[in-house]
Amino acid sequence: MTKKVVLAYSGGLDTSIILKWLQNEYNFEVITFTADLGQGEELEPAKNKALLLGVKEENIFIEDLREEFVSKYVFPMFRANTVYEGTYLLGTSIARPLIAKKLVEIAKYVGAESIAHGATGKGNDQVRFELSSYALDPGITVIAPWREWDITSREKLLAFAEKNQIPISKDKRGDPPFSVDANLLHTSSEGKLLEDPATPAPEYVYQRTTNPENAPDQPEIIELEYVKGDPFSLNGIALASNDLLEELNLAGGRHGIGRLDLVENRFVGMKSRGVYETPGGTIMLIAHRAIESLTVDRGAAHLKDEIMPKYAELIYNGLWFSPEREMLQALIDKSQDRVSGKVVLKLFKGTCSVLSRSSSESLYSEKHVTFEEDFGAYDQKDAEGFIKLNSLRLKLLALRNSKTKS
Questions:
Q1: Which of 147, 179, 297, 305 is catalytic?
Q2: 128 is catalytic
Q3: d(Cα 53, Cα 16) in Å, to the nearest integer?
Q4: Residue 292 and residue 192 share a domain
Q5: Domain stop point among 176, 202, 225
Q6: Region 155-174: what's the mean pLDDT?
Q7: What is the pLDDT of residue 113?
Q8: Which of 176, 205, 229 is the last residue of a domain?
Q9: Is 14 one of the annotated active-site residues of the chain?
Q10: pLDDT at 112
């Protein structure tokens, strides 16, 4: 009986070569899975390419995952104000566990023992796909052709395609200037002309954002409403999670918001340079922190900021389905019970700034903080004892140190 493998398939040249290689090398019956994560590409060509390469129509799975991606993965991540190494909003990282989950589900549905992906042996994605897959199905076999085959150059890749009658589009004949990964949260560009971090990225690398210098000369004012930590409506109109993010992408893209040129530390040990665009996510991060500033207690807010780098690292390293990530998520989600309200933001020339924020759950007390008459809401004399108690250990340290010096 012919064994089956489920391949994460984009319809591009690399995964088409992998499809044929799996048929030739392993004599597998290949089942393809193509996810719509909002990458902005037509998915019908992927189906047609799979059919051309001998995949049965009933073995071609294409699924619109945009709503699930945003509501079950992106939004939970943004409740934590998650950034990796201070700046990266994890647009590639957060998509991989969902793709792996679907690969495992399809494998179970069709009776396949194996899944396959097109991630290289140098990158993070191989780790993310495989750790997620094993967490969901410890008995699954994962095939990573880039770690197995002897196709070690672009020339060998094209030669394999020609030998196996895999169509090669004209733009693939030349050496591509950089590789791109995209989904509804971001675009990621890396490799080739971007490999030297001393060389500025050319403007044509950016696909989702206007150059801030060429952005409109008039700012755009938007209102974002949050309910329990998640954005709920834009300019007073309630939207599905994926539609809301798409609208924020368009608004942010118009004004050149969310560009990032980063040298990051990969999980496998090397540094890499990536150019990212996350316009909607950048707006969400700023807005979420603004509404949290009103509604989250100081202790809870500071604890969230302390655990966030660990949470970000877990996602970056492919441990979305780990118990420690789930434990941190429970803590983060508890902190969001009263994170509801409205934020007004100004988008202008690459910047997103908060104009105002309001919430029925606000902890902000104007009568306590006012510089005017507070009518007994706060007794300023209380601060004297507070300061004395907090300074006691500092005084004792200073006395001891002064004796030591003398």
A1: 179
A2: no
A3: 8
A4: yes
A5: 176
A6: 81
A7: 96
A8: 176
A9: yes
A10: 97
Catalytic pick among 125, 137, 181, 230: 125
Same domain? 229 vs 171: no
The DSSP letter of residue 87 is T
pLDDT at 373: 75
Verify that 9 and 123 share a domain, yes or no: yes
Strands 341-348 and 237-238: unpaired
Let me know if residue 388 belongs to a domain. yes
96 is catalytic: yes
Same-domain status, 56 and 158: yes
Give percent helix, percent strand, percent coil of the chain, each to the nearest 5.
45, 20, 35
**CATH (domain of 168):** 3.40.50.620
pLDDT of residue 405: 74
Show the domain range for 215.
181-296+338-358
Q: Are residues 159 and 222 in the same domain?
A: no
**Residue 226 covered by a domain:** yes
Query: Considering 14, 243, 333, 374, which one is annotated as catalytic?
Result: 14
Candidates 66, 79, 93, 96; catalytic one: 96
Q: What is the mean pLDDT of residues 222-250?
A: 98
Residue 353 annotated in active site: no
Minimum mean pLDDT range among 210-214, 318-322, 361-365, 367-371: 367-371
**Structural domains counted in the chain:** 3
Beginning with the edge strand found earlier in the chain, give each strand of the sheet holding 230-234 in spatial order: 237-238, 230-234, 220-227, 341-348, 351-358
Task: Check whether residue 169 and residue 192 sit in a common domain.
Answer: no
- Residue 176 has a pLDDT of 62
Is the domain of 228 the same as that of 241?
yes
**Phi/psi of residue 187, nearest 5 degrees:** -120, 145
Residue 319 domain-assigned (yes or no): no
**Percent of the residues in the chain that have a pLDDT greater than 90, as a whole number:** 86
Instruction: In whole angstroms, give the CA distance from residue 395 to residue 401.
Output: 10
In the predicted structure, residue 173 carries a pLDDT above the cut 60: no
Cα gap 11→44, rounded to integer Å: 9
**Cβ atoms 305, 86 nearer than 8 A:** no
How confident is the model over 284-313, as a mean pLDDT?
98
**Which residues touch 234 (CB under 8 Å, ≥6 apart)?**
222, 223, 224, 225, 244, 247, 248
Same-domain check for residues 97 and 221: no
